[in-house]
Design brief:
It is a single chain. The protein is built from 10 helices and 7 strands. The chain has 266 residues and is an alpha/beta fold. It has a single domain, classed as 3-Layer(aba) Sandwich (Rossmann fold), CATH 3.40.50. Strands 3-2-1-4-5-7-6 form a 7-stranded mixed sheet, sandwiched between helices. Helix 5 links the parallel strand 4 and strand 5. Helix 9 runs antiparallel to helix 10. The protein binds S-adenosylmethionine. The site of S-adenosylmethionine has 22 residues, from helix 1.
Length: 266
């Protein structure tokens, strides 16, 4: 599967041609040490402990929710807009997993001790509304944590840097709904009156081209841009040739920075 031919797959997993393949995408990403490490940090930032109840919005396969539950002793409720994902989370043993939309959470106010999203705000139609909902359902003193890559931070070493920027910008501005929002998460929390706001940055550096190709789909982005009228087909061919040349000569380097943003509701 070319997971990035339709980069909006995570906006609507159940309507994709093969929804189950998006489960495999998450499993491949979650197996990468970079992802495991920042997810562990997110758990720490939430201040989870026994007796508390947390909500994950856009929980995917539920692995992070299960991990938070077992490492902290806190209870976790997970929601996702995809039935495929929720069924998977339940099959994997997550007790409280339900289909729901982050824009309209089916919970009363002040219900949770904290809530988090991980690589979800980049895909939603109205990130501000999802944040409003997260704040509504946590109690005063509750924690919010948000994780997302910010695609404005991407770099790629191919010969033609203008071409690289053009393709990376397509990825940021066209193929994702909110590809460059993550560096503004702190501002969004601050505007909503959150306190103790912290921002941590972690840069994913990809030097293994098979990882980049299989997990990120990067090699295909130029042709996706061309197919959608954002790049000349000849330039797309040139991008792939230069990409392959970078791999052949052992200099392949792609990087993107993730932001982990957290705050406390006063
Ligand atoms: C990139 S995946 C991340 C999944 C999980 N957080 C993880 O880290 O593995 C994005 C998830 O957000 C879900 N999602 C997208 N839009 C959503 C919405 N409006 N409300 C709830 N979940 C949503 C998708 O179905 C998908 O499972």
């Amino acid at each position: 599967m070319d997971v990035h031919a339709n980069a909006h797959g995570f906006t609507s997993v159940d309507t994709q041609p093969r929804p189950a393949e998006w489960v495999q995408v998450l499993d491949r990403l979650n197996a990468e040490p970079f992802y495991a490490a920042y997810k562990q940090r997110l758990n720490h930032i939430l201040h989870a402990e026994p007796g508390k109840v947390f909500l994950e919005v856009g929980a995917g396969t539920g692995d992070a929710a299960t991990a938070l539950r077992s490492c902290s002793g806190a209870e976790v409720v997970a929601i996702d807009s995809s039935l495929t994902m929720v069924a998977q989370a339940r099959d994997r043993g997550l007790r409280y997993a339900a289909v729901a939309d982050g824009h309209r959470l089916p919970f009363a106010a002040d219900r949770f001790d904290g809530a988090w999203t991980d690589r979800v705000l980049q895909h939603v139609a109205e990130p501000g509304r999802v944040l409003d909902e997260l704040l509504r359902v946590i109690r005063p003193g509750g924690r919010i944590a948000l994780a997302d890559p910010d695609y404005d931070t991407q770099v790629l070493d191919i010969d033609d840097q203008e071409l690289a920027r053009h393709v990376l910008r397509f990825r940021t501005d066209v193929s994702l709904r909110n590809g460059s929002l993550a560096h503004r998460h702190a501002g969004l929390l601050s505007a909503r009156g959150m306190h103790d706001i912290t921002v941590e940055a972690r840069t994913l550096v990809v030097r293994d081209p098979s990882a980049a190709d299989n997990v990120m789909g990067l090699r295909t982005w130029a042709h996706t841009a061309a197919a959608r009228g954002h790049l000349d087909h000849g330039d797309a061919d040139r991008f792939v040739a230069q990409f392959d040349d970078a791999v052949r000569t052992g200099r392949f380097t792609y990087a993107v920075t993730f932001f982990l943003t957290a705050g406390t509701l006063p």
